[in-house]
Design brief:
Blueprint lengths: L1 E6 L4 H16 L7 E6 L14 H9 L3 H17 L15 H12 L3 H14 L7 H10 L4 H8 L5 H14 L6 E4 L3 E4 L4 H16 L2
Parallel strand pairs: 1-2
Antiparallel strand pairs: 1-3, 3-4
Length: 214
Amino acid sequence: MLIEIWSDIICPYCYIGKRRLEEALAKFQHKEEVKIEYRSFELNPDAKVHYEEDNIELLSKKYGTSKEQIKAMNLQLTEQAKEVGLTYHLDKIKATNTLNAHRLIHLAKQFGKENEMVERLFKAYFTEVRHVGEMKTLIELATEIGLDQQKVQSMLNSNEYEADVRAQEQDAQQIGVTGVPFYVINRKYAISGAQPSEVFLKVMEKVWIEEVEK
């Protein structure tokens, strides 16, 4: 069973969804037969690497709401994250462009470390409030999970994997993905959003019966 996940590492629901899917997999009796692959999706492909404004101000402008409303929304999201064991500092996170982070995930996949890289980027962004658009940060995070520093630096200084990122984003458009997280199982069943773990489990069980045991 293949589960493809379109996500962006600056998407708070994507990290929550990752944990909920992991909870479902822990209860799925055929979990050893499940392969998970991440697909690139940039929530804001035109984003700058550095912003002078803080994230509250940026979101307030983007949605045309008050800073108080953004803070209230962040508080609600923080509580949701806490329910799955995650610590969010949404009022302090550093908005940035995620193209290089996605390229880094593609590199990590070549060495069997895709999931570790995704997890490390999520934690760095939401929990540690690191600047995941900066080369220095990305190199540090990649070497932490065991990737070769020279290879990472060389890749980031090139345009390697950019075509792969764009191809996966194009794929998302063709499938009809308009928001993330978005999960596709065996290219046949779709789950949109960070659904409760029970939803993931039910769909996986349904797919197993229909696709494998038929």
